[in-house]
Amino acid sequence: MMKRTVLDTDILIDAAKGIDTAVQCLFSLEKNTGVAISIITYMELVVGCRNKTELRSLDLFLKKFKVLPLDNSACGTALRLLKQYRLSHGLMIPDALIGATALTSDLPFISKNQKDFRFIPGLNLLPYPDSKKEEEIRT
Question: CB within 8 A of 69, min separation 6: which ones?
Answer without folding.
Answer: 39
